[in-house]
Structures are given as C-alpha cells and as structure tokens.
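Retro notes (design track)

What went well: tokenization of the new backbones is finally stable.
What didn't: we kept losing track of which sequence belonged to which structure.
Fix going forward: every design gets posted as structure first, then sequence, in one message. First example under the new rule, 592 residues:
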C-alpha cells in the first residue's frame, strides 16, 4: 500500500484531455438514462400532514443520522426542555398500535392514515385518555407495565387536529423531545418527514469538517492497509493540490445545523464530481429498515472503531445494498490515478432547504517510493491467538478450548479476517475490525464442569475495568442446551462466564413507614449491579397495581390518585427479579 504525501501548490491545473474524452463518451453512452434520483420523490404528498405540535419546530436530531449500527428513522422535535406538550393527529386516520417499553421508544403511538402513510410518535409521557384507558386495560389484564397492542381500524378513529398524546422523555431518550416518523404503510419504510412540507427555519449550510482520501490498492479484504489522509487547505485558499497514486477514494466528515439550535444533525445529500462529472451521489429520502445495519458499509467502519469519527464513503462498495445512492453516475467514484494525470474533485454537501457547502481539491498522479505492501496473516490460526480468514458466502466456525463461535453464511458482506485471543481458560476476545456483523452469530461455552446448582445464575458476560481498576461484568444473558451456554449476538468483543448471586437492591423513596404519603405519588428505586433488572411487580393490599418504571433514574412510581386508591392505610409490596433469577421483596405501609 502506498503512503500519500500531501503537498500544497499555489496554482491548479486543468483536467487532462483524457478526462474530457471520458466525459463526452459517458454522455453518449448514458444519454437514454432517465433519473428517478430527485430532490423530493414525486409521490410524497407535501402539505398533507399538519405539524404534530403547535409550537415552533426546532430539530434536536435529523432523519437518517448516523447512529450506532443504525440510521435514525425519524426527526426529533424539541419540546422546550419540558414534557407534557400536546401532540395532535396530523391528519385523519386511526390508532394502529400503542406500545410501552422500558427502553427504545418508551411509550409510543402509531397512527395509520388513508393516504398510504403511518405516523409514529416516540418517548411519550402519556397517551390521550381514550387511548390510555385501553392500554391500561391490557396492562392490568397481563399484570405488566410493558405492553404492545395492535388495534382494529374501527376501534380508535382520529380526526385531524385531535389530541392523541403528550410529549415526554420515556425509553432510551436523553432529554425531553418528540421522536416523529413517517413510514410508508405497505412496506414500513421510514421516509424523511421534512419531505412532507413541515416548515423548519434553516438558512445555514452544512459544515464540512474534513475531506479525506485513501489508497485502496489490494484492499479487497483488509481496509486498515492504508489510513485515510486529510486534505489540508492553506489559509485563505479554496483549493488544495495533493499528490497520490493508484486506486484512491474520497471520504467526507460533515454535519448540518439549523437556525434555532446548535445541534449537529446528519446531512441530507453528498455529491462528488470528478472533472465536473458526477461520480457519487447520496440522498437521505428514505431507507429500508432491514438494511439499517449496513450503515457500517456506508462509513469507514474500522476508522470509526478506532477514532469514534464516522467518515462517509464517497463511493459504494459492491456488497452495499442500501438504496440511498445514485447508481447511475457517469464516471467511477474509485479513482485510478495514473502518473502525471490530474483529477479535479468537487465535494458538495446540501440540506433540504437548498443550502450548500462545497470543497474543491485536485490530485496529481505521482508515484511514491515509500510503499506499504501489507502483511498477510494467513488463512489459519495458531494454538493460542491469531486471525482466521472468513469468506462471506460460507459458514465459518472458531473452536478454541471451551469457547466456540459459529458464523452463518452472509453474516458479513465481504471477506475479512477475524482476530481472536484467549486471556484465560474462560475469557476470549473476538475482533472483526473491518466490518460489522449484519446478522447474529452464536457464541457458546462448555459448562460441563459447573455445578448444577449454579447454572441458573451463570451467564455470558463482558468484563470491563472501572476507573478505580476493579473488574466488573456486563451480563449479556444466554440459554443452556446440551451442556453448553449459548448467546446470539451481533457484537464482537471480550466474552467470559460470570455468576450473579446478588439480589437486586430496593430503596424506599421520600416517604416513611406507616406515615402519610407526601403527595400523591409513591416512589421506589431499584437497581442491580450485576445481570440487570428483568422484571418487577407492585401490589397494594394484595392486588397487582400498575407502577411506572423509568430506568434512567432507576425509579418506580405509583400514582395513587390515577390508580384510584382510597384514603386510609395501605400495604405496598414490590417484587423485583434480576436476569439471573435473584429476587428481592420490599413491603411497607403508607397512609393516604
């Protein structure tokens, strides 16, 4: 692999005649192609939906933002740092589904509309009374805080502007906001809500943090052979001249901001032009849920794992099945830079409001004497530690002492090396630094030597070090079969076996035994530092009662007024179980 040498020049050169000939030839070849790749898909009904909230719309997060192993499937509307904002149906329809979960969307609502789209509302504080009564009925019937209910079309019709919920901070939310989605009903594809005509003030162009180039010679399996190199511009210069040679690709680090918030949102569109001809195009109009993990093919994954920075590839890998790209570009995005040839590059990043930022640079083909050939670690492995070459289209398996890892065919989209090492007889590390798993693989441990009485409390876990140097475990779970414990996962890392025989911790809130409850809400706090909370149940005077659980605060709350408790003396009982089967029970008396 060749190492790039970056040099800055005071002047730029015109594109060589070869590029001009390529341009005109490409125009002739593709003159009959009609592009469906447009700024706004023609089938989107702009103006059909009203905004779900009445106050000014400011985004805390954009559509298809780059998140861990997935694209963000909606937009996040700010709610002025508070919960309880009214949410109204944006058009006629019916309540299709309501769900209550501890993580994820928390309390969520799904409204199907007759125009072929479904709107989704996440992290809600509560539902409108007519919806809430049906959800509570199901929760009491199943004696469970969590619920997932689908309704028939004629059960809960809603009209445009009707109150359906209140904004909140439930589930895996980092602050009060409304997560809002528009999905195409027939295939459940998330659509960019801003395509539908919602007014969001945006006069700011996207920010291009950096443009990078990377040599890809021989990188069919080993991406780390050449590190991306940043294009550096001299102060006051809008262009840069770079010397490179061989197969070269371009990567971009960019984000978008809007008028009323500093949040760094994802970008809507990236285009790359070579000699004035489009070589790459990407737009975030919609995406396919089952392929969301291919975000790791959209970015330079190994660089992200090492640095935490997501560089978007301005080229499309042959195994990348995402349909967010313009696949009818006229010139290749992977540049084959020959000696003496010049390539003039323009990167264009834009948002839906039409704001555009761009970067220009030129590459001169210059062979370098310093090269990196790459070292092939081989297709096998040694007896202790090593690497194994995986072919994507075949099943692959690692057997290493008491540890086994099974990878079905097509777990990955490309051939790659998987590294592994053994720390001790029960601790093993798997590392696939150059690609993420797109579907689950299975790891397992031989547990034949573990006493039968301890099996229920033995789980597969990840060890980690705390700041004070102690080893702790993040319990992942597992199921026992035929003398082994198995876990299906999509994540690499360090795996071991750990036992949890410590019961959950239950702590009383700001109320005292046998005394009058201060206010109408009884609060408890639960935690488990080992395998984690699996379930809880609350009872008042021997009967199951609905308690809310906010896991970010470890808080259990019982609204005594909402649950219709009478004045007088009551006995409250809370049962908590962790994922290893350990249980704790609290019982106390309060007075209303």
């Amino acid at each position: 692999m060749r190492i790039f040498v970056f040099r800055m020049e005071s002047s730029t050169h015109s594109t060589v005649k070869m590029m001009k000939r390529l341009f005109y030839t490409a125009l002739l070849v593709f003159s009959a192609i009609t592009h469906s790749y447009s700024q706004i898909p023609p089938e989107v009904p702009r103006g059909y939906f009203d905004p779900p909230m009445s106050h000014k719309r400011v985004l805390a997060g954009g559509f298809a933002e780059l998140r861990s192993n997935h694209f963000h499937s909606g937009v996040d509307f700010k709610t002025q740092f508070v919960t309880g904002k009214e949410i109204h149906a944006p058009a006629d329809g019916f309540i299709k589904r309501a769900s209550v979960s501890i993580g994820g969307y928390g309390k969520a609502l799904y409204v199907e509309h007759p125009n072929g789209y479904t709107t989704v509302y996440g992290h809600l504080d509560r539902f409108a009374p007519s919806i809430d009564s049906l959800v509570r009925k199901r929760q009491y019937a199943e004696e469970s805080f969590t619920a997932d209910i689908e309704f028939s079309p004629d059960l809960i019709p809603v009209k445009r502007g009707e109150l359906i919920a209140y904004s909140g901070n439930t589930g895996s939310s980092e602050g009060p906001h409304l997560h809002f989605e528009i999905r195409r009903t027939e295939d459940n594809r998330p659509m960019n809500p801003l395509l539908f005509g919602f007014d969001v003030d945006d006069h700011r162009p996207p920010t291009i943090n950096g443009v990078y180039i990377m040599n890809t010679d021989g990188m069919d399996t080993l991406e780390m052979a050449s590190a991306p190199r940043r294009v550096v511009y001299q102060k006051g210069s809008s262009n840069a001249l770079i010397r490179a040679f061989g197969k070269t690709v371009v990567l971009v680090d960019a984000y978008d901001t809007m008028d009323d918030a500093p949040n760094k949102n994802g970008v809507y569109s990236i285009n790359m032009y070579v000699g004035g001809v489009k070589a790459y195009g990407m737009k975030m109009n919609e995406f396919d849920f089952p392929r969301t993990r291919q975000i790791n093919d959209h970015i330079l994954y190994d660089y992200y794992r090492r640095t935490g920075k997501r560089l978007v590839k301005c080229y499309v890998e042959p195994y990348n099945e995402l349909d967010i790209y313009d696949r009818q570009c006229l010139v290749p995005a992977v540049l084959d830079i020959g000696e003496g040839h010049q390539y003039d590059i323009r990167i264009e990043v834009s948002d839906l409001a039409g704001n555009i930022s761009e970067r220009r640079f030129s590459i001169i083909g210059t062979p370098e004497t310093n090269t990196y050939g790459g070292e092939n670690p081989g297709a096998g492995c040694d007896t202790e530690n090593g690497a194994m070459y995986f072919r994507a289209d075949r099943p692959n398996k690692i057997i290493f002492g008491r540890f086994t890892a099974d990878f079905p065919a097509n777990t990955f989209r490309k051939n790659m090396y998987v590294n592994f090492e053994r720390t001790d007889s029960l601790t093993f590390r798997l590392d696939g630094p150059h690609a993420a798993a797109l579907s689950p693989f299975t790891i397992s441990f031989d547990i034949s030597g573990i006493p039968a009485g301890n099996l229920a409390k033995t789980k597969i876990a990840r060890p980690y070090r705390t700041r004070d140097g102690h080893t702790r475990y993040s319990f992942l779970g597992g199921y026992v079969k035929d003398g082994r414990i198995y876990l299906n996962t999509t994540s690499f890392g360090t795996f071991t076996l750990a036992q949890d025989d410590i019961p959950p911790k239950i702590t009383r809130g700001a109320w005292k035994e046998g005394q009058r409850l201060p206010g109408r809400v009884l609060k408890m706090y639960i935690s488990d530092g080992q395998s984690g909370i699996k379930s809880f149940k609350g009872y008042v005077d021997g009967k199951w009662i609905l308690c809310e659980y906010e896991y970010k605060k470890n808080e259990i709350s019982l609204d005594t007024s909402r649950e219709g408790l009478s004045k007088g003396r009551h006995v409250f009982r809370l049962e908590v179980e962790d994922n290893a089967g350990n249980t704790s029970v609290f019982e106390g008396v309060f007075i209303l």
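Added context from the reviewer: Residues 214 and 228 are 5 Å apart (CA to CA).
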